[in-house]
Amino acid sequence: MLNISALEKLVHELSRLPGIGPKTAQRLAYHILRSKDGYVERLSDSLVRIRAEVHTCVKCFNYTDTHECKFCRDIHRTDDSLCVVEEPSDIMKVESSGAFRGRYHVLHGVISPLDGINAQDLKIKELIARIDAGLRSEGPKIKEVILALDADLEGDTTILYLAKLLQGKEVRLSRLAHGVPIGSDIEFIDDRTLGQALENRVEL
Amino acid sequence: MLNISALEKLVHELSRLPGIGPKTAQRLAYHILRSKDGYVERLSDSLVRIRAEVHTCVKCFNYTDTHECKFCRDIHRTDDSLCVVEEPSDIMKVESSGAFRGRYHVLHGVISPLDGINAQDLKIKELIARIDAGLRSEGPKIKEVILALDADLEGDTTILYLAKLLQGKEVRLSRLAHGVPIGSDIEFIDDRTLGQALENRVEL
């Protein structure tokens, strides 16, 4: 056999997944080999299906297997509040907080010049179009845009860029609050976070 | 959509892999969704291939995509020493130690009555047949059998069972040495291991 074996190929492909090193990939491959009851077929089938059926929502760019995703179709959600996230997986995080009942908009990335990702690579003009359509009463009116982006350099850059773009438009713009994570020890909080937590202290 | 979505199905299948919880499965699924350059197709293809092409070696029961595995075909390995392991993945561990150049035999499990695994479920009669064939000069003569099984209850039980089966046969039987792992701190070694390390101390 001159070409790479099926087992080596599977180990190679698995090791390209995030957080999966060569050793874990090998363990997973051996587990898959040992598996019974058609597991390999089901896993392979679900991979094929995900490519064939899953695409982005025409409105918010979340992943979906329908024309509009379930959050855009949900009639119990309010149209006037829009939460902007970086990736579709972030929607799950916001949802599990239970603190938001509006609509979403997925940017599919943040501005990161070092990685060659600029504003035009993201779903930013689609975001502006959604807001503008509401302002012209051609679509649901959006009163508030919440930027739920990561609290890092790229997230901050994107927030600044969006704030500039939305300047002068009749829409409230907000970002996530910085502060002490619940259950954490003050001793281990970094200075900037603690500074923000002090500044934004809540009266009792 | 009444049936489960493709994304949920992939998360479900991934979360059945060892060491992959629901959160990691979701992260992997989203990564797979975002992946480009035909990664999904390659991963799916390698799964199909592994099922179609990989089977157990006719001699040692290692996984292989040829009739005999590469260790059984390797003419530079000696036939007189046989290393018995629990799983095919254990062969990789022994190989990377560089301390063994003989042949292998994979039991595909260890005796574990609590899990309902008995001697007849393992490749034990095939092991005896290999040894007997050598003794009758119908196959390569095996002079030593090294039992490289886990140092736990099931491993020990299997070693005792094999020792009894091989009693009276003209073959040296050995097991892995117990002792202090290289680079480890004496303070953190359990009493039984330290006891064995003392008993089997090496003269300098």
Report on the architecture of this protein.
2 copies of one chain form a homodimer. In chain A, the strands form 2 sheets. A 4-stranded parallel beta sheet of chain A has the order 4-3-5-6. A two-stranded antiparallel sheet of chain A has the order 1-2. Chain A has 204 residues and is α/β, with parallel strands linked by helices. Chain A has helices at 6-14, 22-34, 39-53, 70-73, 88-97, 124-135, 153-165, 191-199, and strands at 55-56, 63-64, 81-85, 103-106, 144-147, 172-175. In chain A, 42% of the residues lie in helices and 10% in strands. Chain A folds into 2 domains: 5-53, Helicase, Ruva Protein, domain 3 (Orthogonal Bundle); 77-175, Dna Topoisomerase Vi A Subunit, Chain: A, domain 2 (3-Layer(aba) Sandwich), CATH 3.40.1360.10. Chain A contains 8 helices and 6 strands. The interface between A and B is large, with 46 and 47 residues.
Q: What is the strand and helix layout of this fold?
A:
The structure is a homodimer of 204-residue chains.
Chain A: H1 6-14, H2 22-34, H3 39-53, E1 55-56, E2 63-64, H4 70-73, E3 81-85, H5 88-97, E4 103-106, H6 124-135, E5 144-147, H7 153-165, E6 172-175, H8 191-199
Helix pairs in contact in A: 1-2
